[in-house]
Amino acid sequence: MAGAAINATNAVWPNYSTSNVQKAAATTKDTTLGKDDFLKILVTQLRNQDPSQPLQDRDFIAQMAQFSSVEQLMNMSQEMTKLRQNLGSASSLIGMTVEWDGLSDQGVQTTYSGVVEAISIKDGSQYAKVGDRTVKVDDLTTITYVPASSTVPSEHKEAGGNDE
């Protein structure tokens, strides 16, 4: 009966089910420690502490302060990402001449350039519309302001001319 229960979960010791191995391999692993991980470590430490030598108050307060710092750093990181992805700041690129590197239709590394016509956000990334191309803003290599008119305004023309 115990063997049937083990097979029902697809765990066959010492050989694991190939479907479980494939599921485990397919999951993406997050290698960063976040505030939830830090809290789990703290709770585990409290749960497994030696009763004859409990966690001292100052140690507990220090760890809670570290937890608070980790939480605030995570929040700051999220806010900085939001600020970087602010549509308002990226909209200042409209009308600018930009350059970026990419592959041509023949597969040759090429530098492209053009004037930004619009900015859009898709899946948390900003894109610049340049002609018939859409370019990720992070991929832009050069941003140049080119005045709409290269002629000198009329008031400057008259300043150097003949006044009769």
Number of helices: 6
Main sheet: strands, sense, barrel: 5 strands, antiparallel
**Portion in helices:** 40-55%
What is the radius of gyration?
Answer: 30 Å
What structural class do you assign from the helix and strand content? alpha+beta
* Uncertain residue ranges: 1-7, 151-164
Query: Strand order of the main beta sheet, please?
Result: 4-3-2-1-5
SS strand fraction:
15-25%
The N- and C-terminal alpha carbons lie at a distance of 113 Å
Oligomer: single chain
| H-E string | HHHHHEEEEEH
Number of strands: 5
Shape annotation: elongated
Summed over residues and divided by their number, the pLDDT gives a mean of: 74
Task: Provide a compact summary of the structure.
The chain is of the alpha+beta class and 164 residues long.
Could you characterize what this model shows?
- The radius of gyration is 30 Å and the shape is elongated.
- Mean pLDDT is 74; it is low at 1-7 and 151-164.
- The protein has a 5-stranded antiparallel β-sheet, with no helix packed on it.
- The protein contains 6 helices and 5 strands, in the order H-H-H-H-H-E-E-E-E-E-H.
- The chain is an alpha+beta fold and 164 residues long.
